[in-house]
């Protein structure tokens, strides 16, 4: 079958003959982006919490030195991975691990590892900012009732910080969906790598990458809508019941915030 001469005819031809290649590449892209973002969030939360751990004057010298040393190492990690391109990191880690340490990473493991630690560096700063954005009075109140630092972070600070940083988590996922294309430099067969193979078969670069651009847009747009819906679910309903067990000061009732559209109508 010969290649059609018109643009849309070539698009249809490519999809008919290489549709599975595009789907396989898109599936690999999403797998790396989603899992890498999840692992990166875990790394980011751990690093962010450690970075915001308060230092007490009552701590012994060994603990102070240990905490400062760990924070310094984590700060170096964050600055290095936020200050260098992921493509360079991929080349350095994949080839450097073999040259320096004799560790022969598989391409699959390397792809997840690189995206995870890169995302972790960005998420660490996001988590740190989210924790610091919470009113210090929340921490003081928790400590006043006898909570430890761990209990305060787990039950008071992190639930509030998580809602504040949800948009950035979604943003990191969308960035990772697009940035997985840089992993093609180490041979990861994701969407971009698959597209290059398809485009080279008939020299239809414009048509092939038009299809890829649409696929990337569908993936990112769908993820952004799902995450936006999740954020609204975390906000809860606009109306809620204020309840109290004190019958002498009963304040239970329906509270509804004014609708901005109603204000504009007035």
UniProtKB/TrEMBL annotation:
Broad class of where this protein is predominantly found: membrane
Entries under InterPro entries matching the protein: AA_ABC_transptr_permease_3TM (IPR010065), ArtM/GltK/GlnP/TcyL/YhdX-like (IPR043429), MetI-like (IPR000515), MetI-like_sf (IPR035906)
GO biological process terms held by the UniProt record: amino acid transport
Top-rank taxon, per record: Bacteria
Membrane topology, as annotated: Multi-pass membrane protein
Keywords of this entry: Amino-acid transport, Cell membrane, Membrane, Transmembrane, Transmembrane helix, Transport
Transmembrane segments: 30-50, 92-115, 202-224
ABC transmembrane type-1 domain boundaries: 26-227
Entry's Gene Ontology molecular function annotations: transmembrane transporter activity
Entry GO CC: ATP-binding cassette (ABC) transporter complex
Annotated family: Belongs to the binding-protein-dependent transport system permease family. HisMQ subfamily.
NCBIfam families xref list: HEQRo_perm_3TM
Protein name: Amino acid ABC transporter permease
Species, as recorded: Lacrimispora amygdalina
